[in-house]
Design brief:
547 residues; alpha/beta; nine-stranded mixed sheet; 17 helices; 26 strands; 20% strand; globular
C-alpha cells in the first residue's frame, strides 16, 4: 500500500470535500482522510508537500484518435510562417515521391487554433496552385482545411484535375472555389471538410486520397493517447466519428499500447436496415463490452454541423464563413431520428445524439419525447453532445427524460467574436453553450475539449469565456459556473456521462486510483493562472505514468 500525505486533495466526492491524504493499493483508492488517520497505513509513504491533487481528468469529447491521425501527416506544415517555407517543404516531399503519388500535408498554422491566417504568413496570403505546381507538377497535392476553423483547402493543378474542378465548375452548397480575375481556380477551395461529407465533391476527394496502413494508423493513435497523460488526461470518450476505429483501439489494447482509458461508440450508418445493423453491434448493448481500460458502449448519430462552418441548423438565418446569410441543415428528420432512437431502445443501445443549432436540438427533443412516451428513457442516461444553441426550455425537457450532457465551454475561446458575436443575430451569443442552464436543470454535464487544448486550459476557458482572438470577455449569466463545477465537469460529471461513475471521477475508497498532482491550487489561485497550471504527476490505476 502506498500512502500519500500532506496534500491538498480535491476529492470531487458528493460534498466536494478536501482531504489531506489518501492510500492506494492494487490500483484502487483504499482510504481518504487526514494525515493522522492514514499515516500508519503503509510503509511506502509519499510526501505531497502541500500540492493539490485532483482525480484524473476525463475528456468527454476528446477526438484523440482524429488528432493522432491529423498529426501523423507527412510532410507537416504546422508552425511554418511563410508561403516560401511551405512550398520548400512540399518541394522536398515531391523529390521523394513517385510521379502521380499524392502529397497530403498537415494543415497550415499553429494547432489547435489556427489563428491569424493567412495574414500571419510572411507574404500575407495563402499558397496557390501555381506555387504548388512550381515544385510538384507531377504529384497531386492536398493541404487540408483544419477541423477547427473554415480556412480553405489548397490543391495544385494535378489534384484539381483529378477532382474535376475547372473554370467551368459550378459551386455547390457548402463548397466555394476561389477564382482569379480570369476565372481560373486559384487552388483554394472552401468547404472540403468532413462536415460536408454528404457533398459529392468531398466524397470524391476522400475516395482519391491514399489510406493510411493499419500499422501507421495504430502507431499514430498510440502516440496521441500517450500524449494525453502529460496533461493529466486519464480517460477519454471517443463518442463521435470513431466507429471505424474501434478495431484499431482493440488491437492497441491487445498489444498493451492503450496508454489511457477509452470509452467508445459505434456510429449509426446511413441507409442500413436498422434491426440488422444494431444486431451486428450487440457488443455495444447494455453496459457494453470490454473492461476498465477499453469499453465499447452505445451508438451515435449526428444531425447538423458546427456554426463556424455554417452548418448549424438555426431558427434564424446567420452569416456563413463568407458573410453570406444562410443556414445549416439536418441529416435527419424528426421521423427518421425517432425511428433510429426507437431501434436503439429496443436493442438496449445507449444513444448519443450530436446537435448544434436550436432547430436541430428541437428535432432531438421531439424525437426522444416520442420514444420516451413508448419506452421510458429516464434510467438510460442517453447523451446529448454539443448542443451549442440549445434553449433553456429544451434543456428542461431533456432533463425530464434523464438525458446527460456533454458540452464544450471552450467554444468562445476559439470562435466567440468572429462566429457567435459577429455572425449570429441579436443576443444569441450570450447563451452559446449555456453550462449554467444545464447544471441548474440537474443534468450531469461533462465539459470537453473537442480536440482543442488540454483540460486545465478548458477549466480556465469555462470560467472566463474569453475570446482567444480579441481577448473580449463573453461571460454571461447562462455561461457562468464555479470552479468546483468546472472541475466536476472534467471529473465526476464526465464519469457519469461516460457511464463509469462507479469506477472513476473522484478520489474515494474503492474507485480506480487515477489522479493528477498539480503545481498550484486551482481552487484558490487567480483564475487566469489556471490556464498556466502544470501537471506534475499523472497516475493511472495507482501507477505513475507521467511526471
Amino acid at each position: 500500500m502506498t500512502v500519500y500525505l500532506n496534500g491538498n486533495v480535491v476529492t470531487v466526492d458528493g460534498e466536494f470535500s478536501i482531504a489531506q491524504a489518501f492510500a492506494v493499493e492494487d490500483g484502487r483508492f483504499t482510504a481518504v482522510g487526514s494525515n493522522d488517520e492514514l499515516a500508519q497505513l503503509g510503509d511506502d509513504v509519499v510526501d505531497l508537500d502541500g500540492r493539490t491533487v485532483v482525480p484524473g481528468f476525463i475528456d468527454a469529447h476528446a477526438h484523440t484518435v482524429h488528432l493522432g491521425l491529423d498529426h501523423a501527416a507527412e510532410p507537416t506544415l504546422l508552425g511554418l510562417s511563410s508561403v516560401a517555407s511551405i512550398v520548400e517543404t512540399i518541394k522536398a516531399a515531391a523529390a521523394e515521391a513517385e510521379p502521380g503519388e499524392w502529397i497530403v500535408t498537415s494543415s497550415i498554422g499553429e494547432a489547435p487554433d489556427y489563428f491569424n491566417l493567412p495574414e500571419g504568413l510572411t507574404e500575407g496570403r495563402w499558397p496557390t496552385r501555381q506555387d504548388l505546381d512550381a515544385v510538384a507538377p507531377d504529384n497531386p497535392v492536398h493541404i487540408p482545411t483544419p477541423p477547427f476553423w473554415p480556412h480553405p483547402a489548397i490543391l495544385n493543378s494535378a489534384a484539381l484535375d483529378l477532382l474535376g474542378v475547372t473554370r467551368e465548375s459550378v459551386d455547390q452548397p457548402g463548397i466555394q472555389v476561389e477564382r482569379d480575375e480570369a476565372g481560373e481556380p486559384t487552388g483554394l477551395i472552401y468547404g472540403l471538410v468532413f462536415y460536408n461529407a454528404r457533398n459529392p465533391v468531398v466524397g470524391k476527394l476522400m475516395s482519391l486520397l491514399p489510406a493510411m496502413s493499419s500499422t501507421a494508423r495504430q502507431d499514430a493513435i498510440a502516440r496521441a493517447l500517450q500524449g494525453n497523460l502529460a496533461h493529466g488526461l486519464t480517460t477519454i470518450y471517443e463518442g463521435h466519428g470513431n466507429g471505424r476505429f474501434v478495431p484499431d483501439l482493440q488491437a492497441l489494447y491487445a498489444a498493451n499500447r492503450l496508454a489511457c482509458r477509452v470509452v467508445t461508440t459505434y456510429d449509426v450508418p446511413v441507409g442500413v436496415d436498422l434491426d440488422d445493423w444494431m444486431s451486428s453491434v450487440a457488443d455495444a448493448a447494455g453496459a457494453g463490452t470490454g473492461d476498465d481500460h477499453l469499453r465499447v458502449r452505445g451508438v451515435t448519430v449526428g444531425l447538423d454541423g458546427p456554426t463556424h462552418f455554417g452548418g448549424a441548423l438555426m431558427s434564424q438565418p446567420y452569416g456563413d464563413p463568407h458573410d453570406v446569410l444562410g443556414n445549416g441543415s439536418s441529416a435527419l428528420t424528426v421521423e427518421q431520428l425517432t425511428d433510429i432512437a426507437r431501434h436503439a431502445a429496443a436493442h438496449d443501445l445507449r444513444f448519443n445524439v450530436i446537435a448544434s443549432g436550436d432547430v436541430a436540438c428541437e428535432i432531438v427533443v421531439n424525437a426522444l419525447e416520442t420514444v420516451h412516451r413508448e419506452t421510458p428513457l429516464t434510467s438510460r442516461a442517453w447523451v446529448a453532445q454539443h448542443f451549442h444553441h440549445v434553449t433553456r426550455e429544451q434543456i428542461e425537457r431533456l432533463a425530464a427524460m434523464g438525458v446527460v450532457a456533454q458540452v464544450c465551454a471552450g467554444v468562445d475561446y476559439g470562435r466567440g467574436v468572429p462566429t457567435f458575436v459577429n455572425r449570429l443575430p441579436g443576443d444569441q451569443w450570450e447563451h452559446v453553450t449555456p453550462v449554467r442552464w444545464w447544471i441548474d436543470a440537474g443534468v450531469p454535464t461533462a465539459l470537453a475539449s473537442d480536440g482543442m487544448h488540454e483540460p486545465l486550459f478548458h477549466v480556465w476557458a469555462a470560467l472566463t469565456r474569453i475570446d482567444g482572438r480579441s481577448g473580449r470577455d463573453l461571460l454571461t449569466p447562462p455561461k457562468t459556473i464555479t470552479r468546483a463545477e468546472a472541475i466536476r465537469g472534467w471529473t465526476a460529471d464526465a464519469a457519469t456521462v461516460l457511464g463509469v461513475a462507479d469506477q472513476l471521477g473522484s478520489i474515494e475508497p474503492g474507485k480506480l486510483a487515477d489522479f493528477v498532482v498539480l503545481d498550484r491550487d486551482i481552487l484558490t489561485c487567480p483564475v487566469d493562472d489556471i490556464r498556466d497550471a502544470m501537471v506534475l504527476t499523472t497516475a493511472l490505476g495507482g501507477e505513475i505514468v507521467s511526471e
